[in-house]
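User: two proteins, same treatment. go.

Assistant:
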Amino acid sequence: MNARGFIIWNKFRPGLKTLETHFRRRQMGLPGIHAGAGTFVVKIALAIFLLSSCSNVKYLEKDETLYTRTWFSVKGITRIKNKPLKVYELYLVGGVKTNRPFLFLPRMNLYIYNHWKPSGNWGPRHYFHRVFGKPPVLLEDVNPDFRLKVMEQRIAEMGHFDSKIELSLKYFGKNNKKVRAKYHVFFKPAYTYRNFEFIKKDTRVDSIINSSMAKTLIKSGNDYWLKEMKEERERLNLILQNQGYYFFNPNYLLFNADTTIGNKQVDLTMVIKDKITENAYNKYYIRNIGIFVRSDKESLKDAVPNDSVFLDNLKYKSIENPFRPKIITQTVSLKPGEHYSLTDHENTLRYLQGMGAFKSANISFNLVDSSNQLDAQISLVPLKPVQTSLEVNFATKSNDFLGPSAEVSIGHMNVLRGAERLILSLDGGFEWQKRSRKREYELGLNSYEIGTQLKLIVPRFMLPFNVKNESHRYVPKPCRALALGHLNG
């Protein structure tokens, strides 16, 4: 018996004593103690005892060590701004999901992996081993030393340049085949921004960037943080691309930090890199927009329609015409003749994908030769019109009822050629009342329920008047439903 088995034996000895007292009282003609409780405790005790006595480290190779746990010790000489967020950033690097035990149970996923290996590639045992078994997490795979170096880089990116992290490994178990790691994080005050300035280079985007500096994310007195600089670059890139600068990239903005001014302060400057593509300084406009609805059938995957329709200044082509053209063209936020906008680009994609009628949706842009114009092509692949689903559940309730339930549904994803979804579902369930030791019930109680629902989902507002400047950021999904049900209890 190992040490864990001895501990569990002592923990469950009262259960064995209870069972022994029960039989003695029965022999003396006295009312006995409820036998079920004692028997249950004994079964649990024996099961845990047997599982705990089985070693998992004996399956390791001679040079392998089982990694069991990661600990963090965080200390600081002063109050640290955003400390929980910074510690979480470090935990994402150092934290490892291991074969941890659950309460007094052994490492069950590792136990199943080692002791329940299947003999073949199919069958219940193979499925149980594949789903619930987990291979051992080894020290050499975790590589705590490498993680330590990454965490030291991360803590420097947060402005704590003179802070440090130490690693200690504790080996234990038989033949020291188990190990756990502990990272000691010692925070010192972070460097803070004293000044932040954008240096102009007489480019066409200078005025746009300079006018947006009043809303910068980098404020004087904030902690130096590389993450904040990346967010600032993304903010400026969004502003520029929304004004037509399609080829501008956030990586074109460069930060320079001067940490030599003393008192743990930083003077930060931002410039546009010298060698970038000339297209980044050009403002682009949308010339043409084409919409191509492909077929979901494999035989028509590469087919090209001969005819097209011009609607709302958009060129619409479709295979088999599954949708009314107006339904698709009104979702496009991009407009011919207007400058390119990243927000309109993303809103169009988000709306088309949120309609629930397409397997895929993408937008590509082609540069018109020797001009500042773009041609946009929207490509759509619809879902198969008929979709089915089956859901099975088993539930227990606080009133001691339990039982299975199921729901089957069939739906048409484009019933009125406007991406409307008509779904017919049938659900049913049966439940009965189990015996309870805490409450007295009339045994034999049971009930069943059966119902059906017809639901129509339309991905747009159904109003008797037109709505101007309707937002395309989110897809409205008004629903009309008719339901019938019967409960017998």
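Protein 2:
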Amino acid sequence: MKDFLSNIIEADFMPHGHCYFWKPEIVWLNVSGDVLIAMAYYSLPLLLFYFAKKRTDLTHKYVFWLFAAFIFACGTTHIVDIWTIWVPTYRLEGVLKLITGLLSVSTAVVVYKSVPALLALPSHDQLKALNEQLQKEIEERRKTQDELRRVNEELEKRVEERTHELQLEVHERATAQQELQHINRELKIANNDLDNFVYCASHDLKAPIINIEGLLDVLKEEMPAPDEKVNHILKRLDGSLERINRTIHDLTEVSFITQKQIGVAGNGVSNFAVVLEEVEESVSGLIEQTDARIEADFADCPEANIQRKDLKSIMYNLLTNALKYKSPERKPIVNFSTKVAEDYIVLCVTDNGMGVELRGNEKKMFNLFKRLHDHVEGSGVGLYIVRRIIENYNGTIEVASEVGVGTTFTIRFPYSETRADI
């Protein structure tokens, strides 16, 4: 091996030209072919190196490097073939062919292993189709973005218009609220003036009425025994004075109810049974006259934090109302009961009187001086007073009635404000 390497460039063999008998046409034919092949083999690696360098996106660039080296080595073997025609350095030629063979085998192995990956690479047509599809998607996305932009601009325009409308509505509502507040203030002033007028009128009428009663009593004492006609006139005068006094009393009570401000909490506990007993005593004559039966059931809620005077006025007006409008076909029965329902203390007053047609009259019957029956004397003030007292406690009153059966008043007081902590 040592001698082989030391003699690698020794020309101790017969030149290859002897095989061609040194015939010029044979020698130069082979030389020309090897020169052309070598030129081609040397140019191809340069092109491969240039291509691989410019294409930075190549995923199998090492294949190009191996092909370039393999082709370059092949070109070198053809140069050596030309050389050995005249200089027989066959040892050097064999070494170069061995190197070329190793590069060829290595390139073949690498290409074999790279075939699946190379086959997976898309073709030109596939890339063209993918590119066209990508262009379509880009165009569709651009159209979608333009549509979204248009919709967004339209939405912004609508939002701006709606915002402007809302601002106008808010301004109109604020203006309307200010007008309502102004009207409410004027109504309060008018109501106060009316209440003051009612109070003053009822107060100023008391003295003349008292004088008239006194003068009438004096007239009865001083005049001789009147005849039947005069007695009838005197009785009518007494009845008129009684009605005037009752009207003045009702007006005074209405004025008191509308002017006072009730603070419900801490006003004292009222017992429903005790207050009802006081009311029965005050109208005992009317109860006996009508032969009425009064029933009561306050077991569920015997007491409430309601002023005694207010509760008495409510029970008095509802009881007298039930007795005045009793049914002529049966003895009157009036039932009082209480219970706690949700957040309310409920007081129910039920009678078996003549009843009333409620269609369109549910609210009217609680108005001042409103009467639904004219065959019984009354001022139309009682139910109004009841409603005002209940409203002062933030409560409500409802009525259910059927002609010929009876009427039920349902009063609800807020439990949190009127419960009795006992």
